[in-house]
Amino acid sequence: MTNHISRRGILQAGVLGTTGLSLPNFLRLAHAEGQNAPSADAVLFLNLAGGPAHLDTLDMKENLSAETKSEFSSISSKIPGLAVCEHLPKLAQSIDQFTLIRGISHTTGDHPQGQAYIATGNRPGPALKYPSYGSIVMKELPGDPDLPPYVAIPQTEWSAGYMGDGFAPFKTNAIPKPGEPFSVRGISPAAGVTVDKIERREKLLADLDTRLREANTDSPLLEALDTFSGQAFNMITSDKTQLAFDVSREPDSIRKLFGSDDVSQSLLLATRLIESGVKFVTVTNQGWDTHLDNFEGHQRLMPPIDLGLTAAVTALREKGLLERTLVIAMGEFGRTPKINQNVGRDHYPRANWCLMTGGGVKPGQLIGATDAKGEGPTDDTDIHPDDLGASIFHALGIDHHKEYYTRTGRPVSLIPNGRVIQDLFG
């Protein structure tokens, strides 16, 4: 029988050196010992690209001046004391199934960097490009080889960073249309192309690949091509993959939850992919960069999110998947309290919100807050994208301090500055 010696016992015995355990490895062991079992094995991330205005959506304020006050009315919600925008009635009635995190702040005020920050949990810099969450999940939680483990609907700016393109997301580049067959380039064989033809082409590519590797045995591009080629072959020749993307196979009880708009149909596909075994799905909804006509834009953008997000959560619950699927909705930042001369709101990274549910998240909570004018977090709120990233990995059972290595051999912690938001989890 093997005796278990705790980290405290090792320190008390003064035997750190004699065990041959280095201090960095010891600290990683200490962190791992405190890790809980994963509460999620899949993620659905709804990316509101451009940044929704916090003061016009889920962080509305009373008694604001004319230069900052929203044109929208607020309505009460299922979380006591929380008023939300009148154009989010379904969320208002189901928000007790979520936890709302407010007062998220950072200092990255342009779109590409803001997107990189919420995609990775690391503030972007010039020296290193961090991998997005889906790329880490792809490596840490390998799934069915017939399925793309990381799918972006329809597209995404998120990348694999220093991990290389072999861990990049599979982009559908299209959105299902109700009542129409859904064909995804790279998965659906072209007309007249049989599995036998695909297999012969795969053998030819393998022969060519062998010759190329004799000329260059250490090429990141060839490694990525290897990965993509293998994935493409598995997907095109697999009935399982074809079924995973075929939303027409969804029962009427599920399809009727969703609208016919792009957001709903993207989220319907996302829930089907997760049910089929895909580990990480992003749905990107563009248009929230409302420098012009902020209120007209938000009035158009909110109803599809209101319907689609609540439908996705209901569908995951009815499929028995919500408990194991972490659902996240947010944009890269909020928008300025002050309304500009174009009746718009500008970029504002000092105040943002995030909705989370499923995957072990304790529902019905408000975490963090902004001040009375919505200009920034309250004094007792200290939440950054790094903390959201650490919390996502915590739910998945991935140590956010784990070290990866770049191609130059540099050790890099996944999210070195993140802290798990413990109140998120029940």
How would you describe this structure to a colleague?
There is one protein chain. The two termini are 35 Å apart. The longest helix has 25 residues, at 294-318. This protein has helices at 7-13, 23-33, 89-94, 111-120, 133-140, 195-215, 220-236, 239-244, 252-255, 262-276, 294-318, 385-396; strands at residues 42-48, 74-76, 83-85, 99-104, 150-153, 170-171, 280-285, 325-330, 334-335, 347-348, 352-357, 365-367, 403-405, 411-413. The model is unreliable at 1-16 and 30-34 (pLDDT under 50). It folds into 2 domains: 1-34, no CATH class; 41-184 and 245-424, Alkaline Phosphatase, subunit A (3-Layer(aba) Sandwich). Strands 6-5-7-1-8-11-4-12 form an 8-stranded mixed beta sheet, with helices on both faces. A two-stranded antiparallel ribbon has the order 2-3. The protein has a two-stranded antiparallel sheet with strand order 9-10. The chain contains 12 helices and 14 strands. It has 426 residues and is of the alpha/beta class. It is globular and about 65 Å long.
